[in-house]
């Protein structure tokens, strides 16, 4: 079953945050990530939403609560408490 970990938070500087975020690719992969989509708010470019496609919600929850991620977020300049949503996919439809 496909699932997602969706995170939204404010960062001090998008480029600095993105550099550290990109450095965590192997850590995400080891916790069952299959893909990531990063969005920037259209009005506030330092408000970031990340849609993480994951194989397993339990592994995603462990990663979300890990000291490794907490440290990376501090180093990356995350300024707000992250809004976190764990979701199971129901349907994906392509509209052409």
Report on this model:
With about 100 residues, this protein is an alpha+beta fold. The longest helix is centred in the first third of the chain and has 9 residues, at about 15-20. The chain has one domain: 2-Layer Sandwich (Alpha-Beta Plaits). A hairpin with a 6-residue loop joins β2 and β3. The protein has 4 helices and 4 strands, in the order βααββααβ.
Strands, helices and their partners?
Elements: E1 3-10, H1 14-22, H2 25-30, E2 33-40, E3 47-54, H3 57-64, H4 67-75, E4 83-88
Antiparallel strand pairs: 1-3, 1-4, 2-3
Could you give a short description of this structure?
With 96 residues, the chain is of the alpha+beta class. The chain has four helices and four strands; from the N terminus they run βααββααβ.
CATH topology: Alpha-Beta Plaits
Strand content: 25-35%
Radius of gyration: 13 Å
Main β sheet profile: 4 strands, antiparallel
| DSSP summary, beta strand count | 4
What overall geometry do the principal axes of the alpha carbons give? globular
Structural class: alpha+beta
Tell me the strand order in the biggest sheet.
2-3-1-4
CATH architecture identity:
2-Layer Sandwich
CATH class: Alpha Beta
Which blocks of ≥5 consecutive residues have pLDDT under 50? Answer: none
Q: Report the end-to-end length measured between terminal Cα atoms.
A: 25 Å
- Helical content, roughly? 25-40%
Q: What is the subunit organization of this protein?
A: single chain
Number of helices: 4
Give the integer mean of the pLDDT values.
93
| Topology order in helix (H) and strand (E) letters | EHHEEHHE
Into how many domains do the coordinates divide?
A: 1
